[in-house]
Design a protein that fits this description.
The strands form five sheets. The chain has a five-stranded antiparallel sheet. The protein is about 50% helix and about 20% strand. It is an alpha+beta fold and about 600 residues long. The protein contains 15 helices and 19 strands. The protein has helices at about 5-55, 55-60, 70-85, 120-130, 170-220, 235-260, 280-285, 295-300, 305-315, 360-405, 415-440, 450-460, 485-505, 535, 555-565; strands at about 90-95, 100-105, 135, 140, 145, 150-155, 160-165, 265-270, 275-280, 325, 335-345, 350-360, 445-450, 470-475, 480-485, 510-515, 520-525, 570-575, 580-585. The longest helix is centred in the first third of the chain and has 51 residues, at about 170-220. The protein binds adenosine-5'-diphosphate.
């Protein structure tokens, strides 16, 4: 059954109250009026009896039609009128049993019929039987309210005449005043009740409104909402229960968030339309943004092509268990590697979205990589030590001999060219040996303070730059590192030589920027050459990877190795539009 609305219920109660109030008011008024009537009746009976004893019955009995002009009539009438005035009644009259007047202080002439008495026959008959009686309130011939009493005029022969008296209009005036006051009192109490009801409705409505607003905010997920309704009644209890319920929800949410937040793995969940509904602190850290909630997962991963592709396959319901995904260009670009896993989110047996977990395995992969390369290097080092010894000395002698040939062959163009080529190849081989020595870690570090901008300028100045290529070195002198100068210069030389080779055909510029940042010293080498194709970025740091016909493929491996030896990191970036940028980050000396 549908319950009536609160307002309607209150209106009904108010209506009932009004009706009860009216009924009670009418009852009280009736009782009062009856009591007054009875009291007045008794007084009138008394007066009528008093006047009856004073009536000269033989004389009055003789008055007939037209006798009103008689002097005797006038005298008797005047006496009766004086008695009536003294007794405080409006009118007194003497009438016979046929209801015809004999004497009247009012307007009726002797012999006139008193029609108004027809309505009071019972009381008239009672008086005629010797017992004076008062009427109830009745309407007179002129329509006004009346109350009368009748008493017998006793003679030896019995009752022949009767005396009637009518109450004064003052009585009816006070009766009317009483009625007015009762009505006024009723109206006033009704108004007070109505006002009180209105106040209660407003107060109750306002408190219920607070409860309702808190519920609707909490339903929309705003758990800061509180009803804060005071009072010991049901509404107060409802408000307190609601506030306690929201506080419990907040507790549960915070607990859930703390569990999610303390997980090392990044966790994300979406609804069926792929919009993110849950993201823990690790997810925000890993993706580098705070506004994950409420956004499509594909949009959130838009800056990470590999992760984006993984997520699209997962959202389409594809196989996605245990894939490894590169973020920020992966390891070669100084980015990260995550082990990604996606599974359907199932609620009440139905697919409700997607759950995605990303575990950062960068350090693990770096360690593995280092361990692998160390193993390789150790093996290589053992072999290379002997080899280098065997090659370096004969090569040095060979270069001296070739150099000695320069003077005798000075005038001969063709042999001279062959000699130059032989010397160039010899120098390349010497460079390779030097690279290899560093790469295989065969040289111990010789540490000293190195002023980086100065070192970079010295390296740049030693290279033969074609006119179409400009090289600039920026950075305040004095930005220094404690490092092996030869190794550091070697690494810078390799980077600048790569840039120079990338620009030789088309021309362009190379910028070296040395800067001190928070806790690190950064050296950036950027060129606006053709850049590195995306598919090669991952491989250029591999030893012996080269795209040049006369390249060794050891240049960048050495840069990487030098950084490792100095506790630094290397980051490679090559935007789609061209150009290549190498950022070397060293821990700043304390
Ligand atoms: P090498 O210079 O002997 O080839 P590196 O290890 O120095 O060996 O370089 C590996 C590869 O990386 C190069 O062959 C080239 O394809 C690429 N590379 C390095 N630096 C640049 C650059 N500044 N611009 C374009 N490609 C580059």
């Amino acid at each position: 059954m549908r319950r009536p609305a609160f307002g309607a219920l209150l209106l009904a109660i108010l209506g009932l109250l009004t009706a009860t109030e009216l009924a009670l008011g009418t009852l009280v008024y009736r009782r009062l009026r009856e009591a007054l009537e009875a009291d007045l009746g008794r007084r009138l009976v008394h007066v009528s009896q008093l006047l009856a004893t004073g009536v000269d019955a033989p004389l009055v009995d003789q008055f007939r039609d037209g006798d009103e002009a008689l002097a005797a009539y006038g005298i008797v009438r005047e006496r009766l009128a004086a008695q009536a005035r003294a007794a405080g009644v409006e009118r007194a009259y003497v009438f016979d049993r046929a209801l015809a007047t004999r004497l009247d202080t009012g307007p009726k002439a002797p012999g006139s019929a008193l029609y108004a008495l027809l309505a009071n026959r019972l009381e008239v008959e009672s008086a005629a039987a010797g017992r004076a009686a008062a009427t109830r309130l009745y309407r007179g011939e002129d329509g006004s309210l009346r109350l009368s009493a009748f008493a017998p005029v006793v003679r030896e022969g019995g009752v022949g005449l009767l005396v009637g008296v009518d109450a004064s209009p003052d009585f009816f005036a006070s009766l009317a005043a009483l009625r007015r006051q009762m009505l006024l009192l009723g109206g006033a109490s009704l108004a007070v009740a109505g006002l009180a009801a209105m106040l209660i409705v407003r107060q109750v409505g306002e408190r219920l409104g607070r409860v309702r607003r808190a519920v609707s905010r909490a339903t929309r997920g705003d758990l800061t909402a509180r009803a804060e309704v005071a009072g010991a009644d049901e509404i107060g209890a409802l408000g307190r229960d609601l506030d306690a319920m929201i506080a419990t929800m907040v507790d549960a949410r915070d607990h859930f968030a703390a569990v999610l937040g303390s997980l090392e793995a990044a966790l994300l969940a979406t609804d069926t339309s792929g919009v993110v509904t849950v993201a823990n602190a690790s997810a925000r850290r890993l993706l580098g943004r705070d506004d994950l909630l409420g956004r499509p997962l594909t949009e959130v991963c838009a800056d990470e092509p590999a992760l984006g592709a993984f997520v699209r396959v997962a959202l389409a319901g594809g196989q996605t268990a245990g894939a490894e995904v590169a973020l920020g260009g992966g390891l070669p670009a100084g980015g990260r590697v995550v082990a990604a896993s996606a599974s359907p989110l199932v609620r009440s047996g139905e697919r409700a979205g997607l759950a995605l977990s990303l575990l950062d395995v960068t350090e693990l992969r770096l360690l593995e990589r280092r361990a692998r390369s160390n193993e390789r290097l150790a093996a290589l080092g053992g072999m290379a030590g002997g080899l280098l010894h065997e090659i370096r000395n004969p090569l040095a002698s060979m270069m001296v001999y070739l150099d000695l040939l320069r003077a005798p062959l000075a005038g001969e163009a063709e042999p001279r060219e062959v000699l130059d080529r032989a010397i160039a190849d010899g120098e390349r081989l010497a460079r390779f040996l030097e690279d290899f020595q560093i790469f295989a870690g065969l040289r111990p570090l010789r540490l000293e303070t190195v002023d980086l901008p100065r070192a970079a300028r010295a390296v740049a100045a030693a290279l033969a730059w074609p006119p179409a290529v400009a090289c600039s070195v920026q950075g305040e002198d004095g930005v220094a590192l404690v490092a092996d100068r030869r190794l550091l210069e070697h690494a810078l030389r390799n980077l600048l030589r790569n840039a120079l080779e990338a620009l030789t055909e088309r021309g362009g510029r190379v910028d070296v920027v040395v800067a001190r940042e928070e806790g690190v010293v950064v050296v950036g080498v950027t060129d606006d050459g053709p850049g590195i194709p995306a598919e090669e970025v991952e491989r250029i740091l591999d030893p012996l990877f080269t795209t040049k016909s006369r390249g060794t493929g050891l240049g960048l491996s050495i840069v990487q190795r030098v950084l490792e030896l100095h506790g630094g990191t290397l980051r490679v970036e090559s935007p789609a539009g061209g150009g290549a940028s190498f950022r070397l980050r060293f821990p700043a000396p304390s």
